[in-house]
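Exercise 7. Predict the structure of GroES-like protein from Sistotremastrum suecicum HHB10207 ss-3.
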Amino acid sequence: MKASVVQADGSIKVEEKPIPKPEADEILLRVITAGQNPTDWKTAAKAKAGVIVGCDAVGEVVELGSDVPASEVKKGEVRFVFIRGSTREDNGAFAEYATTRWDLTSVVPSNITPRQAASIPIPYCTAVQSLFQNLKLPQYPEKANGEWIIVYSGASAVGQFVIQLAKLAGLRVATTASEYRWPTLKALGADVVADYKDPDVVKKIKEATGDQIQYGVDCISEQGTIQKTQEFFRPEGGRLITTLFDLSGLPRPEVKTEFCLAYICLGKELTYDTTFFPYSEEDTKLWAKWCKLATTLFGEGKLKPSDIDVIGGLDKVQDGFELMKSGKHSKKIVYSIGE
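Solution. The predicted structure, encoded as tokens:
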């Protein structure tokens, strides 16, 4: 099979690789489309030569492992998957075939195309983990009591799913974004939107929410955004979740701040950078639950995928990485692989 592979000089090129074999609890997918996330280029930059890049894929089930229940998975189904890319020479999302644990995948409903579905896996997983594992908010169909949450960078891929899931959980949502993105975010459920570049953004959001923000998710989590997001919280503080890990120099100890890492949901222990994370049964079970829920929630229109930009096939991954690094994109970068 063809796959996008890290080279000795750090670049990404297409190489031939053997088709991976699914383990007992895994399925083999013929990849149709793949979606790019910031973690793809960041982890590839530190990865050893020879590994396959990419985490998010949409594909057709072509083989079932020996322990995969035939009542749950059918050959020919199209499913979206989130796997850990840039770690293995025999498996990754940016390839013509990929394997993954069967219960950590979702059937793509008929109202969503494989291209659209490629925008979902990691951003959706991160939003699920932030809200329901870290913040312990009520899970569908239960609802909270209209408490306020701040979503910093609501127009980001993660931010769009945090907004939708927070509304589904019964919260009121305030968010930041460039003004041209406001209609999109309001359509997703945001109650209050302000421009993050506005010098009075904190004041405006505090006034609009009655200074009652008690939950938060910072979808950027670098270059001062964690400190900035803490400013939106009510005087007595609350709980803030970040998507990156540097929690030094935070000004408000009453805003309890912790990070989330979506890879923990994949059912294996792991080392990320230099930090070891043990296997978490709780996180894995949560992700499996929401993978199953996804088919219904997207199928019924309660959740919507992000806008996408298909820039080509596997040979365009290096270009996609450069585009994402530049920040000159506003849509989810997607690759067409087996369409």
